[in-house]
From TrEMBL:
It comes from Streptosporangium oxazolinicum. This is TIGR03085 family metal-binding protein. Coiled coil: none annotated. SUPFAM superfamilies: DinB/YfiT-like putative metalloenzymes.
Length: 209
C-alpha cells in the first residue's frame, strides 16, 4: 500500500469513528463537509475547479452541499475509502497528487480533536515531504508577510517569503513544516523564532497553495 492509500484508509477510519459532526481544522467545516470535499475533488471534475479557482468556488460549494444531501455521511465516507477514482487511478498519479492531500486532511481531523499527538512518519514519507517543501517553499510562502527560513530536523534548509525585511526561522520535521506551510500554523509542532511582531504576522498569514 502506498502512502496516499495508507493516509486515505486512516482518514476514512477516523471519519467513521468520529461521525459527521466532528470539527476539523478547515474553517467552518465538519467531518461531513470534508468528506464531501474529497468526493467532489475526485469524482466531480466539473466542480473540482472551484477548490483552487475562486470564481468557481460558488459552484463547487453548491455541488458539495448537494452531495451531502444526496449521499449522506456513511456513503461519502465509503466513497472516500474506495478511491482513488477518476483521473487519480492513472498509474503514479494517486501517489503524486494524493499523498499530501490526504496527509494534510488526515491531520486536519486528528488535530481538531481534544486529544491528539503528532505522529512519527516513515522515513521515506518524511523525505518526500522535504523534497516537496524544498521545491515549493516560495509557492507555499508567497503570501507570507515576512521572510521564512525552514530548518529540517536532521538537516536541510528552505527559504520563502519576501527577500528582504523581518525574518522568522522555523525548525521541525518535514511533516510538521509541511503542515505549517499549508496554513496550519497554530497546529504544527515547530519551533518558531523571530521578532514577536514578525512571528504574529506569519502566524496569521494565509499560507498554502
Amino acid at each position: 500500500m502506498n502512502h496516499a492509500r495508507a493516509e486515505r484508509a486512516a482518514l476514512s477510519d477516523l471519519f467513521a469513528q468520529l461521525g459527521p459532526d466532528a470539527p476539523t481544522l478547515c474553517e467552518g467545516w465538519t467531518t461531513f463537509d470534508l468528506a464531501a470535499h474529497l468526493v467532489v475533488r475526485e469524482r466531480r471534475p466539473d466542480a473540482a475547479g472551484g477548490i483552487v479557482l475562486k470564481p468557481l468556488a460558488g459552484h463547487t460549494a453548491r455541488v458539495q452541499e448537494s452531495m451531502k444531501t444526496r449521499k449522506g455521511y456513511a456513503d461519502l465516507v465509503e466513497l472516500v475509502r474506495s478511491g482513488p477514482s477518476g483521473i487519480y487511478r492513472l498509474p503514479g498519479l494517486d501517489q503524486a497528487a494524493n499523498t499530501t492531500e490526504f496527509f494534510v486532511h488526515h491531520e486536519d481531523v486528528r488535530r481538531a480533536q481534544r486529544i491528539w499527538e503528532p505522529r512519527e512518519l516513515p522515513a521515506d514519507l518524511e523525505e518526500r515531504f522535504w523534497k516537496q517543501i524544498h521545491r515549493g517553499a516560495r509557492l507555499f510562502l508567497r503570501r507570507s508577510p515576512v521572510r521564512v527560513v525552514l530548518h529540517r530536523i536532521g538537516g536541510g534548509v528552505a527559504i520563502g517569503g519576501p527577500k528582504e525585511g523581518p525574518q522568522v526561522e522555523l525548525t521541525g520535521t518535514a511533516g510538521e513544516l509541511l503542515l505549517f506551510c499549508f496554513g496550519r500554523q497554530s497546529h504544527a509542532k515547530v519551533d518558531v523564532r523571530g521578532d514577536d511582531e514578525a512571528v504574529a504576522r506569519l502566524m496569521d498569514a494565509p499560507l498554502g497553495v
